[in-house]
Amino acid sequence: MHGPIPTLSFGLILMLKPTCKRFLLMAILWLAILGCSAEVLTFPVEGMVTFKGKAIPKGEIYFDPDSSIKGPQGKALIREGKFSTKEFNSGIVPGKYIIRIQGFDGKPREDAPMGKAIFPAYQLPMDLVAGKSLIIEVPSK
């Protein structure tokens, strides 16, 4: 029967040859740098949103990632139907999303800075890819 399996302890590291110590140190540093540089590459989403064939005066649009995606939520303000996530530096990764849209008449009131809602909050599933501008028509129910 063999003895216990040695573990990598500080004492064992001190007993290593200088060349092995340097190699072990370089491997640890390389793994640390690699772990820190795992930045997620995102892309902006831009487009147009309409309701009853007309541009939505004011609103908000959110891009909620599907559970299969490891990426951030995107968001943008809608102004005269146009939106871009660049405004909030709120890019997304390619994949499946639930898009949520809230549209308002654009006439500010004390209790509603964007105005009165012109339709109930709308959501739709969509696969998003980089470089494709979106055109979304919110259906009237």
Characterise the protein shown here.
- The protein is of the alpha+beta class and 141 residues long.
- The chain has two domains: 8-38, no CATH class; 46-138, Immunoglobulin-like (Sandwich).
- 18% of the residues lie in helices and 33% in strands.
- The chain is built from two helices and eight strands; from the N terminus they run ααββββββββ.
- The protein has helices at residues 10-15, 18-36; strands spanning 46-51, 54-55, 58-65, 74-79, 82-84, 95-104, 122-128, 134-138.
- The strands form two sheets. Strands 1, 2, 5 and 8 form a four-stranded mixed sheet that branches.
- The mean pLDDT is 84.
The helix content is: 10-25%
C-alpha Rg (nearest Å): 26 Å
When the domains are counted, the total is 2
Described by strand count, sense and barrel closure, the largest sheet is: 4 strands, mixed
State which percent range the strand residues make up: 25-35%
Shape: elongated
Instruction: Please name the CATH architecture of the largest domain.
Output: Sandwich
Q: Which fold name is given in CATH as the topology of the largest domain?
A: Immunoglobulin-like
Q: What is the arithmetic mean of pLDDT?
A: 84
